[in-house]
Amino acid sequence: MKLVTPIVALGLALSMTSSFLAVQASAASFETKVTYGVNFREAPNTASTVKRMLRKGEDIHVMRQVNDRWLKIETSDGKTGYISANDKYTNYGDSKYATAIEGVNVRRDAKISSNKIGFIQEGDKVQVIETVNRYWLKINYRGKIGYASASYFDYKTPSRPKPDVSASEIIATAKSYMGDFDYKWGAEPWTTNDKYSDCSAFVQLVFNREHGFDLPRVSRNQAKEGSYVKKSNLLTGDLVFFDTNTNGTINHVGIYIGNGDFIHSAPSNEVGISNLHSGYWEDHYVTARRVLQ
């Protein structure tokens, strides 16, 4: 049996450390670009040693803004240091940020079936690298590239003109799903073949996937779309909203189909029809919005 000498052991340790640092560096999201040559320094002051000059076009990761004069950064080869925060040197000032309005999973790819790599708490702010489409944001999650559902943020993704769809088409589509889904909070059949749905995902399924609308994910945000409608002036295809927790926050939505009835996904009836004037739904009714032209 061979003995490992202290020198060999030290060499192995250094090699493993270097490999670990390389992996760490490769995991970073180099979301910021150098736009003008800038000194890369050991410390956040002009008297500190210059490691080298970063050239225009280099990709870097901004770890944090130290103050209004300095950024702590990581270069693409894994080195950390400091550069001037002046907008002349990077496009960091052009970065866009979004705040989570509800807790949301961060995924490896822009699809609901992709592996989770983290979780963003309600109120947390993240840097948006790219708007993938109206459903997904590419974000900087703790120095890594990740993807999160756009409708969970106060971030306006590019919208499309409202499709020319009739109320009768909307109602027919909604009714075609009766009995198809069991209720499950957070389920999103509009992006998967999941046989579960919640109320706002059902509305997205009908309006977005089937008819090309761009409604957000959660009911309280859907309640900001379109125009306000009095309860006495409801038309088929209007969205009706409720506060079932009686805490002042909209948390349920359905599609009005006429004669006081609306179709929705709910724990009590899966995808089914209820009446606005029944005791429970009348007591919890909040407002209505018209999103059809």
TrEMBL record:
SMART domains, A to Z: SH3b
InterPro entries tied to this protein: NLP_P60_dom, Papain-like_cys_pep_sf, Peptidase_C40, SH3-like_bac-type, SH3-like_dom_sf
Domain (NlpC/P60) ranges: 164-292
Cleaved signal peptide residues: 1-27
Single Gene Ontology BP annotation: proteolysis
Pfam families from the UniProt entry: NLPC_P60 (PF00877), SH3_3 (PF08239)
Record key words, sorted: Hydrolase, Protease, Signal, Thiol protease
GO molecular function annotations of the record: cysteine-type peptidase activity
TM segment ranges: none
Superkingdom as given in the UniProt entry: Bacteria
Domain annotation SH3b: ranges: 27-92, 93-157
Family the UniProt entry places it in: Belongs to the peptidase C40 family.
PANTHER family registered for this protein in UniProt: MUREIN DD-ENDOPEPTIDASE MEPH-RELATED (PTHR47053:SF1)
Protein name: NlpC/P60 family protein
The species this protein was found in: Paenibacillus antri
Lineage: Bacteria, Bacillati, Bacillota, Bacilli, Bacillales
